[in-house]
Each structure stands twice: as C-alpha cells, then as structure tokens.
Specification:
Length: about 475
Amino acid sequence: MADPKGFLKTARQTPRRRPVDVRISDWREVYEPYPSERTEKQAARCMDCGIPFCHNGCPLGNLIPEWNDLVRRGDWAAAADRLHATNNFPEFTGRLCPAPCESACVLGISALPGSTGEPVTIKQVEVEIADRAWSDGGVAPFVPAEPTGRSVAVVGSGPSGLAAAQQLTRAGHAVTVFERDEAPGGLLRYGIPEFKMEKRHLDRRLSQMEAEGTRLECGVAVTSKAQLDSFDAVVLAGGARVPRDLPVAGRDLAGIYQAMEYLPLGNRHGSDSPVTARGKHVVIIGGGDTGADCLGTAHRQRPASVTQLEIMPRPPRARPDSQPWPTYPMIYRVSSAHEEGGERVYAVSTEEFLGDDAGRVRALRLTDVDMSGGRPAPVPGTSREIPADLVLLAMGFTGAEKPGLLEDLGVEFDARGNVARSASYETSVPGVFVAGDMGRGQSLVVWAIAEGRSAAAHVDSRLRDLPRPSLPAPIPPTARPLR
Ligand SMILES: Cc1cc2nc3c(=O)[nH]c(=O)nc-3n(C[C@H](O)[C@H](O)[C@H](O)COP(=O)(O)OP(=O)(O)OC[C@H]3O[C@@H](n4cnc5c(N)ncnc54)[C@H](O)[C@@H]3O)c2cc1C
Ligand code: SF4
C-alpha cells in the first residue's frame, strides 16, 4: 500500500540539466545524476489511486503504482522485475518518452485538495529503476528453455523490431533481425541524438538480446520477398521514413537537407560531421521534436545562429480547456535543446529559398500566416528575408517506403499510406505481420515497443497454433493516444 500522504509531504522534483555551456561542449546526456534516496521520495508521491489513469496514459500498460511503491520501500530489484514485465527497454522510454502517463496522473488534477497539480515523476522513476538494475547486475539474458523449431524474420531493428524480436526469441523461436544500416537500433541510433540517449544504453541491450539468441544481421537491406521465403513468419518493422518535403522555389539549392539526412551524420560524426552547422546561420523548418533534435545537434557544432520556424501559432503554456486531464496536451514546452539557445518563430510559412552565385542557399523568404480560417493565409506586408546557409527540413514523415520490399511482397496500404493490418497485426499477405511506425505512421518509442510486443504475441500464437495469444499484447493496432 502506497503512502496516501506522500504527495503532501514532498514536492515534485526532476533532475537538473548540466549547465548549457558545459553540455554543448560535448555530446553526453544533458541530465545530472539523480540520487536514489530522492527517487525513493519522489516515488512515494504516488498515492496508488483506485483507478490508476497513468496505466491508460502508457501504451505499454506499465504497472506504475506497483513499481513506485516498491521503489518507495527500497526494493529496487522487485521494482525492476515489475517494470520489465511490461517493458522490454525501460532505459529507452525512461529517457525518451514524452510521458503521457504523467499527463494522466491523478495528481495532475489541480483541483485536488492539497495537491500542487504536479504529477509523479514517473518517467524519472522508470529510468532510475532500469539503470540501477543494469548497474546491480540485475539484467541477465533470458535464454528460452526449449526451442520451438520455428523461425521468424524481423525486418528493421528500431524499437518495434527489437521488442518483437526479444519477445519471440524468449518464446523459443529462432529470430533473425535484418537491418540495412551498419548497426542496429533504427531511429534510436541514427535519429535520436546522443545527448538525449547515449548509445551505450542501446548497445548494452543488444548484447543481452544476442546472448538470448537473437541474430542481428546488419548491412542487409531486404528488398525482395525471396529473401524471406525460408522463414515461418515475418515481422515488418521498417519504420516510416519518407520525409515530408517543401516544394517551394529554390528547394534544389545546395545546403538544404532533410532532418534525417542531417541527424544521422551528426550521430555518426558529431562535431566532425560532413554537414556541419559550424559558423552557419541555420534555419530549421518544423517546430516539433525532430526540429528540436536538429537544434541541439546544431548547437554542439557551434553555429552563427539558429532559427526554428513553425507554421502553427505558439501553443499556450497551460492546458487549454479543450485538452483536459488526462489527455496529453499540446502546450508550450522548453526542451533541453531550446534552453541551449536559438530563436523560435511561430505562425510563419516559407515562401522561397534564395541562393548565391554558386548555387548555395543564402537566405529564406518567409511570411507571417494567419491560421484562423483553418489554413495558413499569408499576412500581407509581412514577407521578409532571413539569412540561412544551412536549412534543415523537419516537417514530419509521410509513411513507409513502398518501392522494394513492400511492393515485391504486394502488401496493401491503409488510407494514410501505412501498411494495412488486421486486428492481429497481420498484413494482407498471410504470415507477414507489421509493427511500429510502418503500420501506425510516425509515432513514439513507447508505441513502437508496445506494437512490437503485441505483434510478437500474435506471431507466437500463429506459430504455436494457439486459439489466442499467450504472450502479452498490450495494445490492438487501432489503439490511439488519449485525446
Ligand atoms: C529525429 C527523431 C527523433 C525522435 N525522438 C523521439 C523521442 O525522443 N522519443 C520518442 O518516443 N520518439 C521519438 N521519435 C520517434 C521514434 O523514434 C519512432 O517512433 C520509433 O523509432 C519507431 O520505431 P520503429 O521500430 O517502428 O522504426 P525505426 O526506428 O524507424 O526503425 C526502422 C528500421 O528498419 C530499417 N529498415 C527499413 N527497411 C528495411 C529493409 N527493407 N531492410 C532492412 N532494414 C530496413 C531501417 O534502417 C531502420 O533501422 C523520434 C523520431 C525522429 C525521426
Ligand atoms: S513508457 Fe512512457 S508512458 Fe509508459 S510509464 Fe514510461 S514514461 Fe510513462
């Protein structure tokens, strides 16, 4: 039983970020270490409500009040056990998840008498449990007792593919993960910068998976059905990487890159990236998280200036009435990258890119826009130029890459251009399942893991000829965030 008054005695406290001038001099994670005793006090703020809405906020159904109570009592090993019961990779989500669970925490209802309206630091408790389990030697490989003799190919090694692979390996199937990049991890390795999650966390988990028996074959692009014919089942987990473009005049000038051209180079080469922001006026088009990752990467390369443009108006600082508790609200957030500098400009649209004589971008012409009619309408008299010698497009993704494997397999697509699937994650091609962004569209790490687990449960029940899944399947493919 939790301490029902813990939240009255202790205020919410999150770890401090390292000073800006220190952290932009390296690529390490931005947060300072957080002492265990403080985590135990923070966990004690959880009052174990009768209906834990945080469960509904978390797509994995993490058993949040249970592990909060175990941490409060100092039983970190049992907490790690409960955490791993629902989440294969809590050290990833504990670092990267935007924590919709915290938006759904009952302590977030500010009307509650005595409450500060400040949710439990769920994500922080999660990462501390996971990191401590690793450092205490509590994360061992889980080698399946009996092989089933069935084989599964997983195409793609992002969080959805890795979660599916780990679940299926542990169930006794022979799993091979094919990854076209030189190393596994998908966006965890090449999209998400080191300062948000150091890759050592990923590598450590991959070692556990290999020790369990998962085969990771990197540098292998699966482009045809024939490469998969020898497997009993296939899980497509190739992500949704087709970027949205900005087809305005000057788009073909040199110096304009998609975020996912720029970020992987930053992740591979850091300050020595062949596409560097050093000394440049950088303009990032897109005010979301991918844009923020470009911003943080650019800061570490020492730019002359960075401007982040967003077509929508600036969101409110507090929850608007239209997005009440327990939804995840669209509010003005200051990420670590925003704290490091740069200017955010809202309600603007790019009219054209302007080049120099050598064909390189030198400026961008933008205009204010009025969104009151539901569509961006240019505001007369506001057109202006800003300097830009490196432009990064971070406007989202339109879906999975169709040429190659998907076309050769002949899978059907849904109205949004994602790979269509049944309630059991199976595509229109029997025996071929799909998980993660490839079936859902660009989403979050926590959803990718939840999809990987769920798809694995259905693959397993098919291979074993079970009437229903016996492995955990936290979400159906139609599950969506609380709105
Ligand atoms: C820049 C960026 C930052 C993000 N930051 C966050 C964050 O902080 N928190 C968060 O929760 N979410 C974040 N996201 C979203 C999150 O990373 C994705 O939702 C998640 O990675 C999707 O996982 P996935 O396994 O479906 O696909 P991916 O991670 O995209 O992995 C797909 C993998 O499949 C491989 N592949 C594709 N086709 C083939 C093929 N034919 N053969 C072999 N391999 C193939 C690809 O190379 C890739 O490695 C971010 C996204 C981006 C773009
Ligand atoms: S995975 Fe995300 S939503 Fe789930 S408990 Fe962790 S921080 Fe919350």
